[in-house]
């Protein structure tokens, strides 16, 4: 069994002020499981706007929110979603970020792939 630590980066910044959409995700490759170690969301907007994000773990059929719904990210701040427990995603699972912002959310997910 091999373990590979990988960081996946995606920007959640391609939205309009009236649309929410899943803007980025990490998908577990075939014949692999992914252990989510931590997810960091940063508000990089230049204004004083509060940004919100939904983070979800998807097991292939159901999405489970982590960090609550519409997680607030203060201007110039960041939120780290991590805990004592580690979430293991099956093949076909994913980490998804849905932003409620026009610009300025960066998401970094640290995932250990188990093959």
Descriptive account of the structure:
The chain is mainly β and 115 residues long. It has no helices and nine strands. The strands form two sheets. Strands 1, 3, 6, 7 and 9 form a five-stranded antiparallel sheet that branches. Strands 2-8-4-5 form a four-stranded antiparallel sheet, with no helix packed on it. The N and C termini lie close together (6 Å). The model is unreliable at 11-19 (pLDDT under 50).
Summarize the structure.
This protein is mainly β and 115 residues long. It is 0% helix and 61% strand.
Keywords for this structure?
mainly beta
Topology record:
Elements: E1 3-12, E2 21-27, E3 33-43, E4 51-58, E5 63-73, E6 78-81, E7 87-89, E8 94-99, E9 105-114
Antiparallel strand pairs: 1-9, 2-8, 3-6, 3-7, 3-9, 4-5, 4-8
Order of helices and strands: EEEEEEEEE
In this structure, how is the largest beta sheet organized? Answer: 5 strands, antiparallel
* Helicity range: under 10%
Number of helices: 0
Strand content: over 45%
First-residue to last-residue Cα separation: 6 Å
Gross morphology:
elongated
- Counting helices, strands and paired strands, the structural category is mainly beta
Overall radius of gyration: 14 Å
Q: Whole-number average pLDDT?
A: 75
Low confidence ranges: 11-19
User: How many distinct beta strands?
Assistant: 9
